[in-house]
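User: quick one
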Amino acid sequence: MNRSTTPPRDVLAALGESPLSAPPAGEAFSASRTAALAALRARPREIPWTRQAAVVTGFGLGVTLVGALVTALVGGPAARLFDARLPVVTLLLGAQAVALWAAVRPGRWWGATMAWSATAVGAALLVGLRAATTGQGQAVSDAGGWICTASHLAVGLAPAVVMLSVVRRISWSLPRALTAGLAVGISGLVWGEIACERSWNHVLVSHVGALAVMVLACALASRLLARGTFAP
Amino acid sequence: MQVAWQAQRRVAPAPAADPSGREGMPESAGAFDSSPAAGRGMVELTTGVPPLPQRPDDRAAAVSSAATRDADDDALMARFCAGDDRAFEALHGKYAHQLHAFVRRMVGDRALADDLLQTTFLTVVRARGRYLRGTSVRAWMFAIAANAARDSLRRARVRRLQATQASQESSDRQACAEPPVLPDPPAARAVEEALGALSPEQREAVLLHKVHGLSFSEIAETLGISVGAAKVRAHRGYEHLRVRLAPLGDLT
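Assistant: Done. Structure below.
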């Protein structure tokens, strides 16, 4: 059969003759309308997604900023270096704000990609700066590195609970779940940068690694949560 | 049969042009039915998108029609979000049949489709605060229906795995489906069976594009994927259909 001489036939038009194309039964049609109208009358005012996003973003950023300020004021040795790291910390805070918003915002959004990119750049800069400030990565005791990892996870716990309580009202998607984990994991990354002055490999394993653990844990928890909605 | 066809025309109205004016352009047509490289002597699939209007007046009319539909939907959605019952009823009347046909083909079970239709509209009401102003209302509703259908298929797959503990290869559709209602005539039956054999991802892309007339940008919005990924899914679905429906006779 020569394609050029055969006019295209709309094969799927045959679906029009299929019983599966028939409209729903009258009772199913009216049942769906009645149930939905009852729900509408029970709650005539909508809750805009921007309100949820604002709550999640405000809380997540608030936890990060309060934690960072308290640590800096208490004045560990690393806090003296805070000024030098301020641009990177600011970049991470910006990434966190965008990621928090992106995790709640409906649909796909370029902000999520931007947050991931900014976090990757910020994490690389943290490791690089630490290598520079500790003498090109000279050996520094890494004993008890797990304390930093545990602290990171603890710092992100409260934002994670708030985040999960909101995203469970949204249909699950892997990109959204990962972005939610990123958003709450950055809190620990910022806090650790101010509170800890260990070597670059410690930063890479115990700080950035903790962020990765938080991302995966949040995505998994989000997946396991029961959902009663299918809204994107 | 003529009556049935007319019913389908009501259920799935002819797709309207994209407001961008690109409807029917290569994003929907080139890969599936008009590329010379694609011709292998098989049954050809057209895309269901009306041919690109030849005259500027036609094209402008198509764009205008789509814009009018979207404007109507936007106005209804705004009133509905403010709690207006009548606006909701108008949206329900406009989309319930399409959504029902879509989820029914996704899950292959009429009773389950009835339940999913109710779930879809309950979600539409309860989650109307998550509708993004300015986006396609139709795509948003199909997104909810697609999520509900996907969740139903996933649960059916889990149930099947728990029940059989075997890695039996069968389609998701068969897993949760009643014995399928066999359409008549045979052509329609063959097409339904071919659709049912597609993966859920390909099936939803093909149904949204071909049967319900969504543009690829709307499909991407509906499925939460990129436009490129939507095209790939539909393309692969069409390729499978083309192979499976090759023996089909002339339908027109």
